[in-house]
Amino acid sequence: PESPDVLSYLYRMNFFEIARTFFLFETPAPPKAGLRGAASDVLLEITPIAQARDIHTIVGRVRERAGAILAKHLHYDDRRRDQFLVALSEVCQNIVEHSEDRGYVAIQRYFYKERLGKNVVKIAVTDLGIGVRASLGQRLAGRFGATWSDATAIRQALFHAQSRFDDIGRGHGLRAVRDLTQQWGGRLV
User: Fold this and answer.
1) What CA–CA distances, in Å, run from 176 to 21, 24, 172, 183?
2) What are phi and psi of 145, to 5 degrees?
3) Could you tell me which residues come within 8 angstroms of residue 112 by beta carbon, excluding any fewer than 6 positions away?
């Protein structure tokens, strides 16, 4: 990137370190200013998730760092902060239990002055795994036949609490995350 602002953001988000695990490239020199200091409460860098203990580390780090963001910028009380942490833990846990591969999470606070006039926290969670369709497909694809698709699988997880496991009580995590997101006026994309 040529823009110092973009370059600074990519360094703050730990992008180059993560990208080096997938690509060979020459890392651009960091900009002279704008790198995140150790005390920043603005983001959780792109952080890998490969096993359950990674989630505990992430939630602990977010409790310290993003907890300040939630209280200061979004005026969350302790109960809502804890709900946020449970939702974060849930979406990260799905990587470990369902993707059959590793994943990544990042959190960034933005102030949307023009559009919303308020602070927004965005959580990005992704994995390199088999996808929701394949994860739920073994149990559910037969019910839907030719209409089984990625969108159908995601709807089943978010609206009908479906899991790839038959165990009683499984599958409610993503639906609970959806409910909290709606309750707080957020959205899942």
Assistant:
1) 33, 40, 6, 10
2) 55, -130
3) 118, 119, 120
What is the tens place of the pLDDT at every residue in 18-47? 999 999 988 888 887 655 554 444 578 999
> The tokens of 53 are what?
């203990």
Please give the Cα distance from 59 to 56 (Å, whole number). Answer: 5
Token pair of 43 as six digits: 């983001």
- Identify the H or E element spanning 171: none
- The pair of structure tokens assigned to 152 is 């159908």
User: pLDDT by residue (tens digit) across 71-115?
Assistant: 877 888 889 888 888 889 988 988 988 888 999 999 888 777 787
Q: Write the CB contacts of 156 (distance below 8 Å, at least 6 apart in sequence).
A: 136, 140, 162
- Strands (DSSP E) along the chain, which ranges? 43-49, 103-112, 118-127
Q: Is the pTM of this model over 0.85?
A: no
Contact 181, 188 (CB under 8 A): yes
pLDDT tens-digit readout, 132-182:
899 999 899 999 999 999 999 989 988 888 888 777 767 778 888 888 888
Tell me whether residue 120 is exposed, middle or buried, using C-beta atoms within 10 angstroms of its C-beta: 0 to 12, 13 to 18, 19 or more. Answer: middle
Q: Report in angstroms the alpha-carbon separations of 162 from 107, 138, 166, 169.
A: 26, 12, 9, 10
